Amino acid sequence: MAHEVHQRILRPATPEEKARHEEIRRQIEQELPELQNWARGVASRHQERVAVGTVFTTEEAKVLEAIDTYAAKHAFANRGAVVREALSKLLGIEIARR
Fold first, then answer.
1. What's the pTM?
2. Is residue 97 predicted with pLDDT exceeding 80?
3. Do 41 and 81 fall into the same domain?
4. How many domains does the chain have?
5. Domain for residue 68, yes or no?
6. 6 or 39, higher pLDDT
7. What span, in angstroms and rounded, lies between the C-alpha atoms of 72 and 23?
8. In a domain, 4, yes or no
Protein backbone atom coordinates (compact mmCIF):
# COMPACT_ATOMS: atom_id res chain seq x y z
CA MET A 1 0.00 0.00 0.00
CA ALA A 2 1.39 3.39 -0.96
CA HIS A 3 2.01 5.94 1.72
CA GLU A 4 -0.74 8.46 1.83
CA VAL A 5 -0.35 11.94 3.17
CA HIS A 6 -3.22 12.99 5.35
CA GLN A 7 -3.59 16.55 6.47
CA ARG A 8 -5.37 17.08 9.72
CA ILE A 9 -7.99 19.74 9.87
CA LEU A 10 -7.73 21.50 13.19
CA ARG A 11 -10.68 23.42 14.53
CA PRO A 12 -11.84 24.39 17.98
CA ALA A 13 -14.28 21.97 19.61
CA THR A 14 -17.87 23.09 19.89
CA PRO A 15 -19.31 23.58 23.38
CA GLU A 16 -21.28 20.33 22.92
CA GLU A 17 -18.14 18.42 21.96
CA LYS A 18 -16.24 19.88 24.91
CA ALA A 19 -19.02 18.82 27.28
CA ARG A 20 -19.12 15.30 25.78
CA HIS A 21 -15.33 14.95 26.01
CA GLU A 22 -15.33 16.12 29.62
CA GLU A 23 -18.07 13.58 30.48
CA ILE A 24 -16.04 10.79 28.86
CA ARG A 25 -12.95 11.83 30.85
CA ARG A 26 -14.97 11.73 34.10
CA GLN A 27 -16.32 8.26 33.28
CA ILE A 28 -12.83 6.96 32.55
CA GLU A 29 -11.52 8.40 35.83
CA GLN A 30 -14.34 6.68 37.72
CA GLU A 31 -13.70 3.32 36.01
CA LEU A 32 -9.91 3.42 36.37
CA PRO A 33 -9.70 1.88 39.87
CA GLU A 34 -11.97 -0.98 38.79
CA LEU A 35 -9.86 -1.56 35.67
CA GLN A 36 -6.65 -1.54 37.72
CA ASN A 37 -8.08 -4.11 40.14
CA TRP A 38 -9.18 -6.27 37.23
CA ALA A 39 -5.70 -6.10 35.66
CA ARG A 40 -4.04 -7.02 38.96
CA GLY A 41 -6.41 -9.96 39.37
CA VAL A 42 -5.66 -11.28 35.90
CA ALA A 43 -1.92 -10.86 36.48
CA SER A 44 -2.11 -12.76 39.79
CA ARG A 45 -3.71 -15.71 38.00
CA HIS A 46 -0.79 -15.83 35.53
CA GLN A 47 2.22 -15.84 37.81
CA GLU A 48 4.09 -18.22 35.52
CA ARG A 49 4.66 -15.18 33.30
CA VAL A 50 6.96 -12.26 33.96
CA ALA A 51 5.56 -8.82 33.18
CA VAL A 52 8.04 -6.25 31.88
CA GLY A 53 5.86 -4.16 29.64
CA THR A 54 5.33 -7.35 27.68
CA VAL A 55 4.12 -10.70 28.98
CA PHE A 56 6.61 -13.52 28.45
CA THR A 57 5.98 -17.23 28.53
CA THR A 58 7.73 -19.35 31.15
CA GLU A 59 10.34 -20.44 28.60
CA GLU A 60 11.03 -16.86 27.52
CA ALA A 61 11.29 -15.76 31.15
CA LYS A 62 13.96 -18.43 31.72
CA VAL A 63 16.01 -17.02 28.84
CA LEU A 64 15.75 -13.50 30.28
CA GLU A 65 16.76 -14.80 33.69
CA ALA A 66 19.79 -16.53 32.17
CA ILE A 67 20.80 -13.33 30.36
CA ASP A 68 20.42 -11.32 33.58
CA THR A 69 22.51 -13.86 35.52
CA TYR A 70 25.20 -13.81 32.85
CA ALA A 71 25.22 -10.00 32.86
CA ALA A 72 25.64 -9.91 36.65
CA LYS A 73 28.45 -12.50 36.66
CA HIS A 74 30.37 -10.81 33.84
CA ALA A 75 29.86 -7.16 34.86
CA PHE A 76 27.64 -6.21 31.93
CA ALA A 77 25.42 -3.19 32.51
CA ASN A 78 22.22 -4.68 31.10
CA ARG A 79 20.66 -7.24 28.75
CA GLY A 80 21.49 -5.12 25.73
CA ALA A 81 25.19 -5.28 26.57
CA VAL A 82 25.01 -9.07 26.77
CA VAL A 83 23.26 -9.24 23.40
CA ARG A 84 25.82 -6.89 21.80
CA GLU A 85 28.69 -9.02 23.16
CA ALA A 86 27.06 -12.24 21.92
CA LEU A 87 26.49 -10.77 18.45
CA SER A 88 30.05 -9.49 18.36
CA LYS A 89 31.39 -12.97 19.04
CA LEU A 90 28.88 -14.71 16.78
CA LEU A 91 29.52 -12.43 13.82
CA GLY A 92 33.21 -11.96 14.48
CA ILE A 93 32.98 -8.17 14.43
CA GLU A 94 33.78 -5.42 16.86
CA ILE A 95 30.71 -3.71 18.27
CA ALA A 96 31.19 -0.42 20.06
CA ARG A 97 30.48 -0.61 23.78
CA ARG A 98 28.13 1.90 25.36
1. 0.41
2. no
3. no
4. 2
5. yes
6. 39
7. 50
8. no
Tell me how crowded residue 68 is: count the other CB atoms within 10 A of its CB: 14
Domain hosting residue 34, numbered range: 14-45
Q: What letter would DSSP give residue 11?
A: -
Give the number of other CB atoms < 10 A from CB of residue 60: 13
pLDDT at position 49, please? 66
Q: Is the pLDDT of residue 43 over 70?
A: yes
**Three-class DSSP labels, 30-78:** HHHHHHHHHHHHHHHCCCCCEECCCEECHHHHHHHHHHHHHHHHCCCCC
Q: Which helix (H) or strand (E) holds 10?
A: none
Arithmetic mean of pLDDT over the chain: 83
36 and 70 housed in the same domain: no
Asked if residue 6 belongs to a domain, the reply is no
CA within 13 Å, CB half, 44: 6
CB under 8 Å to 46, separation ≥6 — which residues? Answer: 55
pLDDT (tens digit per residue) in 6-17: 777 888 999 999
